[in-house]
Fold these 2 entries.
Entry 1:
Amino acid sequence: MSDLDRRKFLRLASIIGIAAAMPFSIARAADKPLVVGFVYVGARDDFGYNQAHAQAASIIRSMPNVTVVEEENVPETSAVQQAMEAMIRQDGAELIFATSFGYFDPHVLRVAQRYPAVRFAHCGGLWDASKHPENVGSFFGYIDEGQYLNGVVAGHMSKSKRLGFIAAKPVAQVLRNINAFTLGARSVDPEITTTVIFTGDWSLPVREAEAANGLIDQGCDVLTCHVDGPKVIVETAERRGVMSCGYHASQAALAPNGYLTGAEWNWETPYRAHVEAAQKGQAMNNFLRGGLAEGFVKTSDYGTNVSAAAREQADQIKAAMIAGEFTLFKGPLNDNKGNVVLAEGESLGQTDVALEQMDYLVEGVRGDI
Amino acid sequence: MPGLPTMLSIISSFALFVLFLALQGRPAFEAVRLVFEGAFGSSFAWENTLQRAAPLMLTALCVALPARAGLIIIGGEGALVLGGLAAATLPLWLTGLPPLATLIAMGLVAMLVGGIWIGLNGWLRQKRGLNETIGSLLLSYIAIALFNHLVEGPLRDPSSLNKPSTVGLDYPLMIGVISEDSFRVHWGLVAGIIACVMAWVLVRHSVKGFALDVVGGNVRAARMLGLPVNRLVIFTCVLGGAAAGLAGMYEVSAVQGSANASLIVGYGISGILVSFAARHNPLAIILCATLVGGIEASGSLLQRRLDLPDATTLILQGLLFTNLLAWEALVGRITGWRIALEEHANKVKNAEVQHG
């Protein structure tokens, strides 16, 4: 693996050297490989957020005429600015995927201003035409659709009617997932409740294990989560003999008995779109969003123990989501303090930015923000 | 020779690093070459290295200064995050001043908060008999919890949706780089170097520094001499904490633009390594921080060129630290043997003279 990459690099370096030496090759040659950089905030094999990105990056690596350089465990400090700049200056990267939310402001914005010829695709940021550079774009997926389906399957399979959700921080994106999961489960049986525990940070394996054990001790028999690496939670659930739904990437291999299904990213779709646009010299796609229908997210295969009724209903809803006939957040909807969030007849489509500012937990969630 | 253990440990750590990579079938010498290329091989590499070294100089002082008085303080992280938080929130209360005055006030308040936090460690040790190493570590956890609570709660900017942060600084309050064209490193580096030089003058060329060495060398002797031991110990803690707090202010005003969880990335922890590598000598801290910054900078190149995992540079740092401790112990023992041998030789010589 390493030798292959080195050889690839040497080949690339010589091509760049020759290209630089020849004044007539200033225009981008069609056969010149596009150098694409990936920056991850955690480890590439974390069974979670970063692994989902790295898996898609490895698909991009196999595309023709593309060279991929990667860097993992890059904190959201000036270190990420240095990492992106190093990719541009030392490797000649022309397209950089900054995959962590916190990379955007100020890091990506600053480096993008300095290198207007390089494209920066950021995962999660809200690109704003009025104040952000043209060579920056943001992409994200509506993974709450996957969490809703997780909820439907969990609702069918749960016997105790109590589900557990381990979440990192009470921020909008996380609340949207907790709410979607709960709505999915309660569409099966309105008696079901979800107990949520916030651990306080994106990657705290010890606290995640404690939270998982705590929820199981309280009687929750299906666990899911929104933390960077669901590995510990899924493993703990399996060891304690309860069921789990995955998140970010597939954790099926960790829990052959209890893994029901999972909400997974499919970053290959936006990655491919950005790479192809760069190769063809098309304008930067500044705002890219999608859910199941657009192929930005996908669901894990059902575990062997998932009942036929659960599969059938989940498949039906999934088909409706893909056909664009399903609305996730619609009235009447109350939060868990009894306030009306959406009145009868009101609804919010997936693209509605109000959903990205969510600051409540829906009825049926046990927990406080 | 005071620098001997450090030199020996650098050489032996790289030797072990080569061995470690070679055993795994990785291109070991290529990796070492890339470490130097990525750290010091070009002007960009130097910028990268020094940018990473800047906060480490300040957090290392938080270990080095109390160490002169015989304390092992490892809680610089807490002083850094609280200092950064204080600096980020000050402009919200203090409006209407010109940017430079606000920046100076931010620096001062960050140093004050950091100084109080580590000073508290010194006070607890002297007045309550609390072990300062454990105490500083626990206080650092408390500081981080307090920081998280404030940033995610009362001080949170409501518009920071998925990454809770304090309200962002206005543009004039952002500290830029030293030279936009030729030297893209922020001014925290200059602050770090000045702080190290000032600390060096303090510990090596002042009466107070001499008194500190007496306290650190033999606290009973210091008391017998009538030195104000408690005051001196707390004084070094306050100064060390102030340095770490200032590092937090630079992270906020030169890098992040607000206080958020990205301040908690282990600058305080790396500072411990730097200070021990420098044997708590403030001038040597500048060199050692550059070395550690360089190793971190080169990790980027190792990952991209050789596909090595990020942990590679952590292993190199770990080797450096353990080798340092090992050589420190060993060199001390070798000196002991040498003295014993010389004594023996002298005895033999004396005996010969008597017999002669």
Entry 2:
Amino acid sequence: MFKLTRLVTLADPARLMPLADDLRALARTHEAYRILVAPTLPGSHFGGDLLAHFAFDSAAQRDGFGATLAPVLAGNAVDGADYQGSPDGKQAPDLANGVYRVLLLSVDEGTHPESVVQFEAETRMMPHYIPAIRNWQLSRADAVVGERRWTHVWEQEYAGAEGLLGPYMLHPYHWARIDRWFDPECPERIVDARLCHSFCALEASIL
Amino acid sequence: MTRGERRSIHAIDEIVAKPGEGKALLEDYMARYAPGARERGMMLEQVLVSPPMWLDDQPNTLTFRWSIADTGGWWQMRFVGGNDPAVAAWWAEADARAISRRRFFAAEPADIGGLCDV
């Protein structure tokens, strides 16, 4: 699957719903097979006002859509990535009325490749220890827009926001294990402190 | 939070100082890092020096064990310290005076169940 995610901070908040409608319509004309366009939920951090996520069968379709999308979003602040999603984990393929969360992160340039691989492997183990993560994908970015040179897209789906704000944030595997890659006080830190943490309501699983 | 209250999380800094730097690095840690850490809710429980003498041609290992009340206190510590450029600058300076450093978090076995029950 070839995916594209954009976090849009609107110059004019009144444009949120009309823009969401425009993005859905545009994605359908480009034959996106998965479309999620929704307002972000409170608690998002640098996550934009509108979360827009699309999946395509080919890179050409995705890139064509991205080129068409850029002028539509012009004038707004946008963070996002184009990437290939791999089916890392799907514990709840029929998840409905849940929450989709995406984290855009930037690993420092020059980080030893072995450290990146270890960070990725440990991150992919989070659902093993935190079952509230129902479906998930960790992807490297092919192309990015926004405030940082985003290197990774960490996507999860939960049955509800409480799964993200509770078990995900509070489990020791997160704060006592994974977070050392993010914490400026830890020598293992490789991830830039500027993150995009965004989540929204989800009608049906898109991962 | 006062001494005697239950604090379930331990943060441990283990610093292997460059030869001859051990005593000065410990004093700087206590004077320049520890006060801010206390303001972030950390309580310094123990300081250890190994070997128990000041070496001038070999490294001393300094170990600082802090306690944190609970997971909420941990995130408070993390958000404040992680967004303070002075803290990052301190560690950059300390790392330049160290051979290696570790920070890790731990708990007593009896507390694992409660910490994982989220």
